Amino acid sequence: MRTGACSGFTVEMRDRGIALITFNEPERLNGMTQAMKRDLVEVVTQAQMDDAVRVVVFTGTGRAFSAGDDMTGGYGDAARVPTLVPDLPRGHGTPIGTYDALRVLSQSVNVAVRNLDKVTIAAVNGYAIQTGLSLALACDFRVAGESARLGSATLRFGLLPDEGGHYLLVQLLGLGRTLDFLLRKRIVTAAEALDLGLVHEVVPDEQLLEHALAMANEFSNGPQVATRLLKRSIYTAAQTSFEHALDDIATKTAISDHHPDAREGGASFREKRPAKFE
Fold this sequence. Notes:
By secondary structure, this protein is α/β, with parallel strands linked by helices. The protein has helices spanning about 35-50, 95-115, 130-140, 165-175, 175-185, 190-195, 210-220, 225-235, 240-255, 260-270; strands spanning about 5, 10-15, 20-25, 55-60, 65, 120-125, 125-130, 140-145, 150, 185-190, 200-205.
């Protein structure tokens, strides 16, 4: 997996296959640009295909995880570092251009994150708004610092949560609370987000990244094949019938039961020692 500087973020490999993606343009509250989204899709794709990557952690610098799309006019600007993929026409100039830009760029980021078989964690520092919120919601786990603020609030600008945030909110909040959250343009505190179920944990700001990396280490030390199969089965179960979910996990169990990790798990139990999954 490629590490180093990308458009609007950096990629760093930590011990035990933990990939840390850090949004690093705090002067713009880590606002998303076209180049940034394309690089994110490429990096997440690399993470999926690289067996050395076990967990992916997203976080931001400064006062925001990501405050959404760059509304300052920089959305179509040239990237500040060379991009990983060639540039595309900006789009959004016509109705069909907006449709294409959403389907190909904005929505592709969250699709890539949601489809990643490796565990994903969003360490939400400061503001996670609109696109930033949807990216956090696309992750498997969300840990928020105490000063975090989460919301969509697109209606304040007469816009829609067009990158998929409405779908992700319905899954987490249900229909009624999603209507309240989006139509009333709510931006909630970390404590309120915890009560709503938008985040799993809230920790002191200064402990946020350390806590998220500790969680990542927990997953990176687990049985990787079984973890990835289980993650995919859980998402499948959330969107299908009971019968389909049963068949799906039976198929995946036919793989995991015969994997060396399953033998190691059984041996460690019998020998009363920690398992060593490789």
